[in-house]
């Protein structure tokens, strides 16, 4: 059986050998949830870029630019980081360039060595689990964290994915054991548990209650978001052949 | 109220500002449990050193040398890393020099900036909690981890200490929220939960079942182990004045 590992922060990713593995990058509030929502709402592609300036420059190349810093839409950007902006196919067919605080970094650090990088979100949890079972490669769940530190919501997602994959994969990793157990304990009241999250984080997330509700919705979308070259695109797990 | 933070790995300690704070270093299997046991059994002091060779050289200076690599007593060393070796005051009055895989590193990385470095172990959990309440400074619980990664038993200890300190301290840290919850879920069967720990770690811990039982004993000793200069010494929390 193939293995699952959890990496709890981008600051720890160098401890994991990513070669031959699929890396699931997760930044629940809100980068990867927003990317999955965009792809489910027919955007053509989403290109994550590291800096605000690089992202801004892509506007001239026909990209819709999306960016936030500390939870706010960055100056001169059309979009911030709310998944709700993409609903009703608002950006159908468009190419999006996006920069976010934690999520972009985690993607960047994963793509060099991994076989594949895909997006993790509660919104497409089962589709992602099905895809990983079908691919049958070792998996690393890479939590984007919060400024390099352990992050509650990303870690709970990691636990949820381990739970869905148990039986198909082994998990020989203390992080996976801990986060699966933590998710099982709180799965019926994720929002209540997350309300305890750190004060600094809650301040950052002020006025995004609707986004948070949305990002905690399970299995709304039946697609996988996959990095191809520099851009994330939609993959339908049932149709892709290995 | 003063704050508690958890640092889940020495690889993340640079994200924490340790100035003015007390750092509780924890390596449950077995470095810090063994050190607490030694201090409770009347050793004079325990000096943690980074390398095997440095430690070996201290024999000539009159130290009893203790060292393990990958769970085994290192060649030419009198002691390995078993807490049981120190029982019945077997090394009463002796100065011990010790090197271990993860614990020594965590102490080394903590001592530069912290106000104080003390030892964390289930064996003296309440004494340590009482000491921290008495001192009334911000606290960072520094988990030694396993080869830089998240470690189940050290994290559970961190959760246990947060639980004992709740009401006296605030914890504005996702790691603290998560580990307190995980400890609460498994506090009545720590050993059963820890039996799920990673296969590689279990192999490393082979033939140390008696040590593991001992290290999971709660509140056996009423003392605090504190770094003073280069050596860990025993402090009686009731008698020290601030």
Automatic annotation (TrEMBL), chains A, B:
Protein's UniProt keywords contain Magnesium: yes
The organism's place on the tree of life at top rank: Bacteria
UniProt-listed Enzyme Commission number(s): 3.1.3.71
Pfam families hit by this protein: 2-ph_phosp
Keywords: Hydrolase, Magnesium
Entries under InterPro entries matching the protein: ComB-like, ComB-like_sf
Keyword Hydrolase in record: yes
Reactions catalysed according to its record: (2R)-O-phospho-3-sulfolactate + H2O = (2R)-3-sulfolactate + phosphate
Cofactor: Mg(2+)
Homology family: Belongs to the ComB family.
HAMAP family: ComB (MF_00490)
Protein name: Probable 2-phosphosulfolactate phosphatase
Organism: Echinicola jeungdonensis
Record gene name: comB
